[in-house]
Write a structure and sequence with these properties.
Elements lengths: L3 H11 L10 H10 L15 E2 L7 E2 L7 E4 L1 H8 L7 H6 L23 E4 L2 E2 L19 E8 L12 E7 L6 E12 L7 E12 L2 E11 L22 E14 L5 E14 L3 E4 L10 E4 L9 E16 L2 E15 L23 E16 L8 E18 L4 E22 L2 E16 L2 E2 L8 E2 L2 E19 L2 E12 L4 H5 L17 E13 L3 E20 L6 E20 L4 E14 L9 E2 L9 E11 L2 E10 L2 E5 L3 E5 L2 E11 L5 E7 L26 E9 L1
Parallel strand pairs: 4-7
Antiparallel strand pairs: 1-2, 3-6, 4-5, 6-7, 8-9, 8-36, 9-10, 10-11, 11-12, 12-15, 13-14, 15-16, 16-17, 17-18, 18-19, 19-20, 20-23, 21-22, 23-24, 24-25, 25-26, 26-27, 27-28, 28-29, 28-30, 30-31, 31-34, 32-33, 34-35, 35-36
């Protein structure tokens, strides 16, 4: 079998770059042309690429000192040709993003070794109060126009961005008149129960000052199989296999005022994915290399798992407000997720059933509402290039976790409220842009009195409040020192809460007060980063090195009794390097390459040195990705892509040992626009039908010994009229 590193070198020979940083405008424009038909190919000249994440107003990425990426619609579509996994596009295009879990759960999927803040049109899609690792599957990716990624800790969009910010931006009507897109997709692994399909319709309408975008879809998924012809087990934190999902999305906009300087926009989104509950878990044997599998059946008296997300957002924009641009949006969101049934020790209660026999299911519910405001004023005080960005955010986030079958409280209701004013300045001085600012996080967590479960000794815990006041500064500079070249340096702080539900439900000794729990203290992450970018006529390259530290960080370990996660609070130090680039040989051929490597360190004992390597539950092994695109005709193209996860061994004086075996996966996408019969796409995931164990599943925890998906073939037909 080909060794991963050998195959990785082969990728380098085939391709010279991947998933270019958004600091490279031509790379983004080139990506947009890959799947374009002759009628919608953009102009060939370079254009300025802008992002709204972080500043909430359009800002050129070559004036932002940091590793900013824009995943284009073409890159989203390319991944959708292979799989509808919502996070797969991140794993393929963002160097520092971990491998996709191939599940409804995104356990282990972090950004640069830390949990990122996931946004949908600026609205948080999870709760740091009780991170259920389900906030990566919240909408149909067919309505996503682009994904903006800020790598590294950031306070720009509020709490939760310890690893960075991932903002999914929805589509909008762009052209006068109507455009309707109909999508049909069929996928199979050539097993009777492996087939799946999707039907979806999008309608964009624009008429003068009014525009709207409506979308709906239905996806039905079969069970998944590995390359050895064995069904893959049902992930306890949530599987995509054997599920169906419904999505409805609506966006209405109205421009008004002098010169249409004002806009009012209402966005509604409803997404639900339901398990069909046709299979139950059958455990394998890790010592013999037999993976967990799924067999037909149903646990009597249990419920099907689900993800149920909805949100509403009302946005107001005024581009002529006291010489600047005012943006305000109010939102409300609800998120509920139910997990698979389990008979683990921590769910037992002899008052309900004999020990060892009780099956129960956890369910997380969270609601949030908030107001985000910003005002951006260019040429402040008449100084050319000096820009002020200021505003205040308010949010209220509540969350709790219960055991659904027996209706027991597992994690008590938690309520977090926060006011956060901020101020940011940037100054363009010739080829140099200087930035600096501060955000003040002023929040409060409130938990009422509660009693833990039988497994935790039915301890009465005294509720209380915890205040969080933190000043979160940032400074940076970017220097455009030559034609096509720029370099940047930045220093910033990010802020998040720990996964508060874990320590709250694990209290097992009397006399504990919420207000004095060390594990509930905030995680403050400091990030230092340097990097450079180059963009030429046919090629581009970006690289950065970073170090993020937290004096009271958080890492995960597995409870040997329950198999569940335990949160460890200790100093954490993560260092990494990543690069990406692209090379266009001519109009027909283009290649891409990306690489990332990070190492995390924490302590063995309190106040000890940072010499303990953090394992795969926190920091993934090095990753290499590459692709080669051939535009074989005016109406067709093909892309061969490969992703390699390199092997890694962690040895520390026999105190800790972890071996992760690497692997390489290939995929193929072929597009052809028939004009008359729609745009046909053939996607083949795991092209060589490689058998492998996902890296996160190579480390033993509760019922997690799963192989990765074998070959999946998909055919998509998209009609536009």
């Amino acid at each position: 079998m080909t060794r991963p590193i050998t195959t990785a070198l082969g990728c380098i020979v085939l391709a010279a770059a991947a998933s270019a940083h958004a600091d490279d405008p031509a790379a983004v424009n080139a990506a947009q042309t890959d799947n374009a038909t002759p009628s919608d190919k953009p102009r060939q000249e370079l254009e300025t690429v802008t992002v709204t994440t972080g500043s909430r107003s359009a800002k050129a990425v070559d004036k932002i000192p940091g590793a900013i990426m824009v995943i284009t619609k073409a890159e989203v579509d390319r991944t959708l040709a292979l799989t509808d996994d919502a996070t797969a596009v991140l794993a393929r295009t963002v160097p520092g993003y971990a491998e996709s879990s191939q599940a409804m759960s995104n356990t282990g999927e972090n950004l640069r070794g830390r949990i990122p803040l996931r946004l949908f049109d600026g609205i948080p899609q999870g709760s740091p109060l009780r991170e259920g690792t389900r906030n990566g599957t919240f909408t149909d990716m067919g309505i996503i126009d682009r994904v903006e990624v800020i790598n590294g800790p950031s306070a720009a969009e509020g709490i939760g961005a310890a690893g960075g910010i991932i903002n999914y931006i929805s589509k909008s009507a762009q052209k006068e008149g109507d455009q309707v897109d109909l999508t049909m997709r069929y996928s199979t692994q050539f097993k009777d129960d492996s087939s799946g399909y999707k039907v979806g319709a999008n309608w964009a309408h624009k008429s003068g000052d009014f525009d709207m975008y409506l979308a709906g879809s239905y996806i039905d998924r079969g069970i998944t199989w590995d390359a050895n012809g064995r069904r893959i087990g049902m992930h306890q934190s949530g599987s995509l296999a054997d599920t169906s999902s419904n999505d409805f999305f609506a966006k209405f906009g109205y421009d008004f005022g002098q010169g249409n300087s004002q806009r009012l926009q209402l966005t509604l989104s409803k997404f639900k994915i339901d398990g069909k509950d046709n299979y139950i878990e059958q455990l394998g044997d890790r010592s013999k290399g037999i993976t967990d599998t799924a067999v037909p059946g149903h646990n009597p008296g249990t419920y099907a798992p689900f993800n149920d997300f909805w949100q509403a957002q009302l946005k107001y924009l005024n581009s002529d407000f006291f010489g600047g641009t005012l943006a305000m949006d109010a939102y409300r969101a609800s998120q509920a997720m139910r997990f698979l049934p389990e008979a683990t020790p921590d769910k037992q209660d002899p008052l309900i059933a004999p020990l060892g026999t009780l099956i129960d299911q956890s369910e997380i519910n969270s609601q949030k509402k908030g107001l985000r405001t910003s005002w951006t004023r260019p040429d402040l005080f008449g100084v050319s290039g000096l820009e002020l960005h200021t505003g205040v955010d308010w949010v209220e986030d509540t969350a709790q976790q219960k055991l659904a079958i027996t209706n027991r409280l597992w994690v008590p209701p938690m309520d977090y409220t926060s006011w956060a004013p901020y101020l940011q300045l940037s100054w363009d001085v010739g080829p140099v842009t200087l930035v600096g600012g501060i955000r003040r996080e002023d929040g409060q967590l409130e938990v009422n009195d509660y009693t833990t479960t039988y497994y935790r000794n039915r301890v009465a815990v005294k509720g209380g409040t915890i205040d969080y006041q933190n000043n979160l500064p940032n400074v940076g500079a970017i220097w455009r020192f030559a034609e096509g070249w720029s370099a940047f340096a930045s220093w910033s702080k990010g802020f998040t809460l720990p996964n508060a539900g874990i320590p709250l439900r694990n209290v097992n000794k009397p006399g504990v007060s919420v207000s004095k729990m060390k594990d509930l203290q905030a995680i403050i992450v400091r990030n230092e980063e340097v990097g450079f970018n180059w963009r030429g006529e046919r090629a581009g390259f970006s690289a950065s090195a970073y170090k993020s530290t937290s004096q009271l960080g958080a890492s995960l370990s597995v409870d040997p009794t329950t198999g569940d996660y335990v949160m460890n609070r200790a100093p954490v130090d993560i260092k990494g390097f990543e690069f990406s680039g692209d090379f266009r040989f001519n109009d027909e051929w283009k290649s891409t390459l990306l690489f990332s490597r990070a190492m995390g360190y924490t302590v063995f004992t309190a106040n000890g040195p940072l010499t303990k390597h953090m394992g795969v539950t926190d920091v993934m092994p090095a990753k290499l990705g590459a692709s080669l695109t051939w535009n074989f005709s005016e109406y067709g193209n093909a892309t061969l892509g490969g992703t390699t996860l390199l092997s890694r061994n962690l040895n520390q004086n026999t105190t800790a040992y972890e071996h992760i075996g690497g692997y390489t996966l290939w995929d193929l996408e072929v597009n052809y626009d028939t004009r008359k019969f729609g745009k046909l796409t053939l996607g083949v995931e795991n092209l060589t039908d490689r058998y492998y164990i996902l890296a996160f599943n190579q480390v033993d925890s509760y019922q997690n010994f799963f192989a990765g998906r074998g070959r999946v073939v998909s055919i998509t037909d998209k009609f536009s009229f």
